[in-house]
Protein backbone atom coordinates (compact mmCIF):
# COMPACT_ATOMS: atom_id res chain seq x y z
CA UNK A 1 0.00 0.00 0.00
CA UNK A 2 1.20 3.50 -0.79
CA UNK A 3 0.18 6.53 1.23
CA UNK A 4 0.42 10.07 -0.13
CA UNK A 5 1.28 13.05 2.05
CA UNK A 6 0.81 16.69 0.97
CA UNK A 7 2.78 19.27 2.95
CA UNK A 8 0.50 22.26 3.53
CA UNK A 9 1.65 23.69 6.86
CA UNK A 10 3.75 26.59 5.58
CA UNK A 11 2.74 30.24 5.50
CA UNK A 12 3.62 30.78 1.82
CA UNK A 13 4.57 34.37 2.52
CA UNK A 14 6.50 34.87 -0.73
CA UNK A 15 3.34 34.56 -2.79
CA UNK A 16 1.65 37.19 -0.63
CA UNK A 17 -1.83 35.71 -0.30
CA UNK A 18 -4.03 36.09 2.82
CA UNK A 19 -4.83 32.36 2.74
CA UNK A 20 -2.66 29.22 2.52
CA UNK A 21 -0.85 29.16 -0.80
CA UNK A 22 -2.39 25.82 -1.75
CA UNK A 23 -5.86 27.38 -1.74
CA UNK A 24 -4.90 29.73 -4.59
CA UNK A 25 -7.07 29.04 -7.65
CA UNK A 26 -5.40 28.16 -10.93
CA UNK A 27 -8.11 29.97 -12.84
CA UNK A 28 -10.58 32.67 -11.91
CA UNK A 29 -13.15 30.96 -9.71
CA UNK A 30 -11.65 27.58 -10.59
CA UNK A 31 -9.81 24.67 -9.02
CA UNK A 32 -7.19 25.45 -6.37
CA UNK A 33 -3.65 24.07 -6.30
CA UNK A 34 -4.65 21.81 -3.40
CA UNK A 35 -7.84 20.57 -5.08
CA UNK A 36 -5.90 19.70 -8.22
CA UNK A 37 -3.21 17.86 -6.25
CA UNK A 38 -5.84 15.92 -4.36
CA UNK A 39 -7.67 14.97 -7.55
CA UNK A 40 -4.44 13.81 -9.20
CA UNK A 41 -3.38 11.66 -6.22
CA UNK A 42 -6.80 10.12 -5.67
CA UNK A 43 -6.92 9.10 -9.33
CA UNK A 44 -4.20 6.57 -8.41
CA UNK A 45 -6.27 5.22 -5.47
CA UNK A 46 -3.76 6.59 -2.98
CA UNK A 47 -4.74 7.13 0.65
CA UNK A 48 -4.05 10.86 0.93
CA UNK A 49 -3.09 12.70 4.12
CA UNK A 50 -2.24 16.37 4.49
CA UNK A 51 -0.04 18.18 7.00
CA UNK A 52 -1.52 21.50 8.10
CA UNK A 53 -0.44 24.46 10.21
CA UNK A 54 -1.01 28.00 8.92
CA UNK A 55 -4.76 28.77 8.82
CA UNK A 56 -5.40 25.04 8.97
CA UNK A 57 -9.18 25.44 9.30
CA UNK A 58 -9.41 26.75 5.75
CA UNK A 59 -7.62 23.71 4.36
CA UNK A 60 -9.59 21.26 6.47
CA UNK A 61 -12.84 22.86 5.35
CA UNK A 62 -11.72 22.48 1.72
CA UNK A 63 -11.31 18.68 2.11
CA UNK A 64 -13.36 17.56 5.13
CA UNK A 65 -13.01 13.85 4.36
CA UNK A 66 -9.22 13.87 4.46
CA UNK A 67 -6.92 12.69 7.25
CA UNK A 68 -4.77 15.51 8.63
CA UNK A 69 -1.57 15.73 10.67
CA UNK A 70 -0.70 18.96 12.45
CA UNK A 71 2.62 20.76 12.73
CA UNK A 72 2.08 23.10 15.72
CA UNK A 73 5.41 24.80 15.06
CA UNK A 74 4.67 25.63 11.42
CA UNK A 75 5.85 29.22 11.90
CA UNK A 76 9.35 28.28 13.11
CA UNK A 77 10.08 24.90 11.48
CA UNK A 78 10.57 23.74 7.91
CA UNK A 79 9.32 20.89 5.74
CA UNK A 80 11.41 18.26 7.56
CA UNK A 81 9.26 18.62 10.67
CA UNK A 82 6.01 18.83 8.74
CA UNK A 83 6.78 15.56 6.97
CA UNK A 84 7.81 14.03 10.28
CA UNK A 85 4.42 14.99 11.77
CA UNK A 86 2.77 12.68 9.23
CA UNK A 87 5.34 9.86 9.18
CA UNK A 88 5.06 9.40 12.94
CA UNK A 89 1.66 7.84 12.21
CA UNK A 90 2.72 5.58 9.33
CA UNK A 91 4.06 2.05 9.63
CA UNK A 92 5.21 -0.45 6.98
CA UNK A 93 3.96 1.46 3.96
CA UNK A 94 5.47 3.18 0.98
CA UNK A 95 4.96 6.95 1.27
CA UNK A 96 4.79 9.36 -1.64
CA UNK A 97 5.07 12.95 -0.46
CA UNK A 98 5.02 16.31 -2.16
CA UNK A 99 5.16 20.00 -1.42
CA UNK A 100 1.77 21.67 -1.34
CA UNK A 101 2.70 24.24 -3.99
CA UNK A 102 3.57 21.91 -6.88
CA UNK A 103 1.32 21.89 -9.95
CA UNK A 104 2.04 18.83 -12.06
CA UNK A 105 0.87 16.37 -14.68
CA UNK A 106 -0.46 13.07 -13.26
CA UNK A 107 2.05 11.11 -15.36
CA UNK A 108 4.74 12.30 -12.95
CA UNK A 109 3.04 10.41 -10.11
CA UNK A 110 2.67 7.38 -12.37
CA UNK A 111 6.40 7.30 -13.13
CA UNK A 112 7.44 7.72 -9.50
CA UNK A 113 5.09 4.93 -8.36
CA UNK A 114 6.38 2.67 -11.14
CA UNK A 115 10.02 3.09 -10.13
CA UNK A 116 9.88 0.20 -7.65
CA UNK A 117 12.37 1.92 -5.32
CA UNK A 118 12.54 5.03 -3.19
CA UNK A 119 12.49 7.77 -5.80
CA UNK A 120 12.88 11.47 -6.57
CA UNK A 121 11.15 13.18 -9.50
CA UNK A 122 13.77 15.27 -11.32
CA UNK A 123 14.14 17.53 -14.33
CA UNK A 124 17.56 17.25 -15.95
CA UNK A 125 16.95 20.24 -18.21
CA UNK A 126 16.75 22.83 -15.41
CA UNK A 127 19.23 23.96 -12.78
CA UNK A 128 17.95 27.20 -11.25
CA UNK A 129 19.97 28.82 -8.48
CA UNK A 130 17.22 28.85 -5.83
CA UNK A 131 15.85 25.37 -6.48
CA UNK A 132 16.75 22.01 -4.91
CA UNK A 133 19.38 20.28 -7.02
CA UNK A 134 20.90 16.79 -7.08
CA UNK A 135 23.89 14.71 -8.10
CA UNK A 136 24.33 10.96 -8.54
CA UNK A 137 26.80 8.34 -7.40
CA UNK A 138 28.49 5.93 -9.80
CA UNK A 139 25.58 3.48 -9.50
CA UNK A 140 22.98 6.00 -10.57
CA UNK A 141 21.45 6.73 -7.17
CA UNK A 142 21.02 10.16 -5.60
CA UNK A 143 24.23 11.21 -3.82
CA UNK A 144 23.41 14.82 -2.90
CA UNK A 145 20.09 16.66 -2.80
CA UNK A 146 19.94 20.25 -1.60
CA UNK A 147 20.03 23.84 -2.81
CA UNK A 148 23.85 23.84 -2.61
CA UNK A 149 24.99 20.93 -4.80
CA UNK A 150 28.31 21.90 -6.38
CA UNK A 151 27.92 20.14 -9.75
CA UNK A 152 24.20 19.46 -10.15
CA UNK A 153 22.71 17.31 -12.88
CA UNK A 154 19.27 18.91 -12.62
CA UNK A 155 16.50 19.93 -10.24
CA UNK A 156 14.45 17.89 -7.80
CA UNK A 157 10.79 18.82 -8.18
CA UNK A 158 9.46 18.21 -4.67
CA UNK A 159 7.68 14.93 -5.47
CA UNK A 160 9.32 11.92 -3.81
CA UNK A 161 8.71 8.39 -2.57
CA UNK A 162 10.25 6.41 0.27
CA UNK A 163 9.59 2.67 0.42
CA UNK A 164 8.53 0.84 3.56
CA UNK A 165 12.02 -0.65 3.69
CA UNK A 166 13.56 2.76 4.39
CA UNK A 167 10.64 4.42 6.17
CA UNK A 168 11.69 3.95 9.81
CA UNK A 169 15.26 5.07 9.17
CA UNK A 170 14.07 8.09 7.19
CA UNK A 171 11.73 9.05 10.01
CA UNK A 172 14.66 8.93 12.45
CA UNK A 173 16.71 11.21 10.19
CA UNK A 174 13.90 13.75 9.95
CA UNK A 175 13.73 13.79 13.74
CA UNK A 176 17.50 14.38 13.93
CA UNK A 177 17.78 17.35 11.56
CA UNK A 178 17.47 20.97 12.61
CA UNK A 179 14.06 22.61 12.76
CA UNK A 180 15.09 24.93 9.92
CA UNK A 181 16.02 22.09 7.55
CA UNK A 182 14.06 21.02 4.52
CA UNK A 183 13.13 17.33 4.25
CA UNK A 184 15.97 16.92 1.75
CA UNK A 185 18.41 17.12 4.65
CA UNK A 186 16.84 14.01 6.14
CA UNK A 187 17.21 12.32 2.75
CA UNK A 188 20.92 13.19 2.68
CA UNK A 189 21.47 11.76 6.17
CA UNK A 190 19.73 8.56 5.12
CA UNK A 191 21.91 8.35 2.00
CA UNK A 192 25.05 8.92 4.09
CA UNK A 193 24.07 6.01 6.32
CA UNK A 194 22.67 3.53 3.81
CA UNK A 195 24.12 4.49 0.44
CA UNK A 196 21.92 3.54 -2.51
CA UNK A 197 18.42 4.66 -1.50
CA UNK A 198 16.76 7.12 -3.89
CA UNK A 199 16.54 6.65 -7.66
CA UNK A 200 16.10 9.73 -9.86
CA UNK A 201 13.00 9.59 -12.07
CA UNK A 202 13.38 11.97 -15.00
CA UNK A 203 10.10 13.75 -15.75
CA UNK A 204 11.57 16.71 -17.60
CA UNK A 205 9.31 16.10 -20.59
CA UNK A 206 6.23 16.69 -18.42
CA UNK A 207 4.81 19.94 -17.05
CA UNK A 208 5.56 20.79 -13.42
CA UNK A 209 5.66 24.19 -11.67
CA UNK A 210 6.52 24.97 -8.06
CA UNK A 211 4.57 28.09 -7.13
CA UNK A 212 6.69 30.34 -4.92
CA UNK A 213 6.15 33.75 -6.48
CA UNK A 214 3.51 35.53 -8.55
CA UNK A 215 5.45 34.80 -11.75
CA UNK A 216 5.34 31.07 -10.95
CA UNK A 217 1.59 31.27 -10.47
CA UNK A 218 1.18 33.00 -13.82
CA UNK A 219 3.25 30.28 -15.48
CA UNK A 220 1.23 27.51 -13.83
CA UNK A 221 -2.02 29.15 -14.92
CA UNK A 222 -0.73 29.34 -18.49
CA UNK A 223 0.56 25.75 -18.62
CA UNK A 224 -2.48 24.20 -16.95
CA UNK A 225 -5.39 26.08 -18.47
Oligomerization category of the chains in this entry: single chain
Tell me, rounded to a whole number, the average pLDDT. 95
**Share of helical residues:** 25-40%
Total beta strand runs: 11
| Name of the CATH homologous superfamily | Spore Coat Polysaccharide Biosynthesis Protein SpsA, Chain A
Portion in beta strands: 15-25%
Q: Describe the main β-sheet briefly.
A: 9 strands, mixed
Distance between the terminal alpha carbons, to the nearest Å?
Answer: 32 Å
What would you report as the Rg, rounded to the nearest angstrom? 16 Å
Describe the structure.
With 225 residues, this protein is α/β, with parallel strands linked by helices. The protein has a single domain, classed as Alpha-Beta Complex (Spore Coat Polysaccharide Biosynthesis Protein SpsA, Chain A), CATH 3.90.550. The chain contains seven helices and eleven strands. The strands form two sheets. Strands 1, 2, 3, 4, 6, 7, 8, 9 and 10 form a nine-stranded mixed β-sheet that branches. Strand 2, helix 2 and strand 3 form a beta-alpha-beta unit. Helix 3 crosses helix 5, helix 3 packs across helix 6 and helix 5 packs across helix 6. The protein is globular and about 50 Å long.
Q: What secondary-structure arrangement, pairings included, does this model have?
A:
Layout: E1 2-7, H1 33-42, E2 47-52, H2 56-62, E3 67-70, H3 79-87, E4 94-99, E5 102-104, H4 106-114, E6 119-123, E7 133-136, E8 142-146, E9 154-162, H5 164-176, H6 183-194, E10 199-202, E11 208-210, H7 214-223
Parallel strand pairs: 1-2, 1-4, 2-3, 6-10
Antiparallel strand pairs: 4-9, 5-11, 6-9, 7-8, 7-9
Helix pairs in contact: 3-5, 3-6, 5-6
